[in-house]
Amino acid sequence: MLGFLSTQTLSPGMGCNRNQEFWGALLELDDDPSVELLQDKDVWKFTDGWHRAFLNDPLLEYQRAGDKETPVQVKVKRRVFAVAVHSWIRTKVVITVKQGASVVICEIPAGGRKSPKARLLDWLVNTMFKGFGKVQNEEHKKRRREFDAKLQTAIARTIGDRAKTMVYVNLVVTTPESQGHGYASTLLHKVTRLADLLGDACWLVSSNIVNEPFYNSHGFKAVSDVIVGDDNPAWNKDPVDVQVMVREPRAV
User: Fold this and answer.
1) Phi/psi at 35 (5° precision)
2) 27, CA 20 to 30 Å: which among 16, 47, 149, 197?
């Protein structure tokens, strides 16, 4: 997934009420009581785990442009992300296993306009992300613009307006010490199972090619590869492959 979420890709027309209804239906499936809503008290635990889980993410390494984050930058980034998570708890589906050890965030197709509260929270989060981006160096900004432009082109070409009728999986994160226990699979299965019951397709953006088998095992297939760093002389590593992936609904 995208380690530090691009605000340009997170709002395909979702609504707060539909997300709450989706979660209610997830609970009614009742096939795994270990899955629950992420609570505000567990946001900082999740934020710390998110930061550590994406330390070696290829896309983030490329976007850092060789700079090592200072302790102050890390602190600010984590606080911005934590505030965003508090907002997403109220506007998206944020489910977890073991109080933040593993988390999946997703959005459900909305039947109408977002509520004023949801729009206000979206504005607040977007403003924070933009403010954080302004303090980055010029090479960092250049690489982020490169990725955003290529990603938007890929999404428009392969998904287009269909995104408005699909479940969007924003983020899948498991803390390093909790990996290997199937927690993310449990959460993602919960989401895809109800999507199947609703007849909705799902989509996501994966920033690490090594995760492709995991997403394939849940029915996601790559529909576009966004390559960055292939024509940047300042980047001396392999180009980074970011995948746009789609899962079509299965008969139930």
Assistant:
1) -85, 130
2) 47
CA 210, CA 226: separation in Å to the nearest integer?
15
**Amino acid at site 27:** L
Question: What's the rounded Cα separation, in Å, for the pair 130 and 137?
Answer: 14
Give me the count of residues in the chain: 252
**DSSP letters along the chain, please?**
--SS--GGGS-SSB-HHHHHHHHHHHHHH-S-TTEEEPPGGGHHHHHHHHHHHTTT-HHHHHHTTTPPPPHHHHHHHHHHHHHHHHHHHHHSEEEEETTTTEEEEEE-B-SSPPPHHHHHHHHHHHHHHHHHHHTS-HHHHHHHHHHHHHHHHHHHHHTGGGGGGSEEEEEEEE-GGGTTSSHHHHHHHHHHHHHHHHT--EEEEES-GGGHHHHHHTT-EEEEEEEESTT-TT--SPPEEEEEEEE-----
What tens digit of pLDDT does each residue of 29-38 get? 656 668 889 9
**Other CB atoms within 10 Å distance of the CB of residue 72:** 8
Q: How far is CA 133 from CA 11, 70, 129, 169, in A?
A: 18, 15, 6, 23
Whether the predicted pLDDT of 6 surpasses 60: no
The answer on pLDDT for 106 being more than 60 is yes
Q: Which of 15-24 are b and which e, b meaning 16 or more Cβ less than 10 Å from the residue's Cβ? A: bbebbeebbe
Q: What CATH number was assigned to the domain covering residues 28-247?
A: 3.40.630.30
Give the type of residue at 236: N
| Amino acid in the structure at residue 214 | F
Percentage, residues of the chain above pLDDT 70: 78
